[in-house]
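Readers of this paper often ask what the protein records in our data store actually look like. This encoding replaces a full spatial description with a residue-level series of whole-number codes. For reference, a complete record is included directly beneath this paragraph.
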Amino acid sequence: MGYKRFVEIGRVAMLNYGSDYGKLCVIMDVLDHNRCLVDGPTTGVPRSVIGFKRIMLTDIVVPVTRSCKSASLKKKLEALDTSVEDQFAASGWGKKVAAKATRAALSDFGRFKVAIAKQKRNKAIKAKVAAKLG
């Protein structure tokens, strides 16, 4: 299988640095080999120039023209049958991000319950393996 996540106009990316960390944006234009113009009118990301090291590319592509206005990008995003946020949340990466956020929000008692559940699961696995091996 070849690599499929190329930098292109309309590619949805997640910001991995700065005040907008974790937000989704759309690549609007490629300025040079290090920087691109991004915009995220539905996620609150302002139109700005950002380095490729500061974004992570997703599999989602939005059909937009190069350097279109924020208003027309917003219309295109709203016209999609499923929103970009929903598509990302349904992906494996989105589920992993949601699980990490849920786990980070746990209280001390919640972490304790997770540890007990993990112990029970491991005991059940050990019992099955022992029974299988005889």
User: Anything to note?
Assistant: The chain has a mean pLDDT of 95. Strands lie at 11-15, 24-30, 35-40, 45-51, 55-61. The first helix runs from residue 70 to 79. The domain at 11-90 is CATH 2.30.30.30 (SH3 type barrels.).
